[in-house]
Specification:
It catalyses: N-acetyl-L-glutamate + ATP = N-acetyl-L-glutamyl 5-phosphate + ADP. By secondary structure, the protein is of the alpha/beta class. It has one domain: Carbamate kinase (3-Layer(aba) Sandwich), CATH 3.40.1160. It is built from twelve helices and 14 strands. The longest helix is centred in the middle third of the chain and has 24 residues. The chain binds adenosine-5'-diphosphate (ADP) and N-acetyl-L-glutamyl 5-phosphate (X2W). N-acetyl-L-glutamyl 5-phosphate (X2W) binds next to α5 and β4.
């Protein structure tokens, strides 16, 4: 037997209660909504952190959010290429993928990365269903450019399987491999795949989990980290010549998603513990938000006004 006084002496976690309560306004905005989460290979390098990210996604599902996970695995593919002495070559952020290399890319993304994520997620209750973009023709593509080999340009997204899984309260975990219009399969950039999927399923938000704190105007100058930008500003940056490598497909995908009605896109640091929860359920916010706020007058204001801004945005 244990007396109540004893339990209290161990410390009542008042702050924990406050934190949970503070989540309410944010939770009201996202519960029942579909959120596409793109998990990049760069933020997946630490398996413990990756397992925590999967647990946070399950928590969001339990809280009524409908997460759809789209993942890459560029670093794991690089390692496999090096093991097989295949050259790693990118043109405009896209991996040059020969026919033989395609088999390896598919093996790594669907056989290794996807299944590790499924395993980590399903340690918390078997909600994760791992699929490739080829399953039920989720991602359909044609050859992008002959010099890239089997790199696909997405032509359409079939949303049915994703919608069915979400309706049945599963969490789709989608590897960025596409089925060809001409048969066969294609390697597609996972940022691009996530943007297309978010647009096609009418997601509320898209969140890119990467290994930096967000988008820097002049990378890596820490003072140039962008907290918020409008769709117009993002479009101008995509058209300009300041962006390099990994951020080109991410920002282009933010633009595509917002153009199709997704309310906000976020680029956040997935290596920060509980980054997703902090972004979605607290006043703190994280990284770079594209779109989102109704007006610049709400920038850098108190949490209460920020909440008001979010309500306006949701009208
Ligand atoms: N302007 C920029 N802002 C932030 N990161 C940038 C920028 N330009 C290039 N990067 C690089 O982009 C990387 C993230 O892209 P990438 O490696 O493709 O990640 P992921 O695996 O998450 O898709 C960062 O680690 C950083 O080195
Ligand atoms: C065409 C192309 O470049 N495909 C990517 C697919 C994986 C990916 O996008 O992974 P990240 O999200 O970790 O960058 C590749 O082969 O690396």
């Amino acid at each position: 037997m244990k007396y109540a006084n004893e339990a209290r002496a161990e410390g009542v976690p008042v702050r924990t209660g406050e934190i949970l309560y503070e989540a309410m306004p944010w939770l009201k905005q996202v519960t029942g909504k579909t959120i596409v989460i793109k998990y990049g290979g760069s933020a997946m390098e630490n398996p413990q952190l990756a397992a925590e990210v999967m647990a946070d996604i399950v928590l969001l599902k339990i809280l009524g959010v409908n997460p759809v996970l789209v993942h890459g695995g560029g670093k794991a593919i690089n390692r496999a290429f090096s093991n097989f002495n295949l050259p790693v070559e990118f043109i405009d952020g896209q991996r040059v993928t020969t026919d033989d290399a395609m088999d390896l890319v598919r093996m790594v993304l669907t056989g290794e990365v996807n299944q590790h994520l499924v395993e980590a997620m399903n340690a918390h209750g078997n909600m994760g269903v791992g699929v490739s973009g080829t399953d039920a023709g989720i991602i359909v593509a044609e050859q992008a450019r002959p010099e890239l080999g089997r790199v696909g340009k997405i032509t359409r997204i079939n949303t049915q399987l994703i919608e069915d899984l979400v309706a049945d309260d599963y969490i789709p975990i989608i590897a960025s491999i596409a089925i060809g219009e001409d048969g066969g399969c294609y390697n597609v950039n996972a940022d691009v795949a996530a943007g297309y999927i978010a647009a096609a399923i009418g997601a509320h938000k898209i969140i890119f989990l990467t290994d930096v704190d967000g988008l820097y105007e002049n990378y890596p100058d820490p003072d140039s980290l962008i907290a918020e930008m409008t769709l117009g500003e993002a479009e101008a940056m995509v058209r300009g010549d300041k962006l390099s490598s990994g951020m080109i497909p991410k920002l282009s995908s933010c633009v595509r998603a917002l153009d199709s009605g997704v309310s906000a896109a976020h680029i956040i640091n997935g290596t920060v513990p509980h980054a997703l929860l902090l972004e979605l359920l607290t006043d703190s916010g994280m990284g770079t938000m594209v779109g989102g706020l109704a007006s610049a007058q709400f920038l850098n204001v108190s949490p209460v006004s920020k909440f008001a801004a979010k309500l306006i945005e949701n009208r």
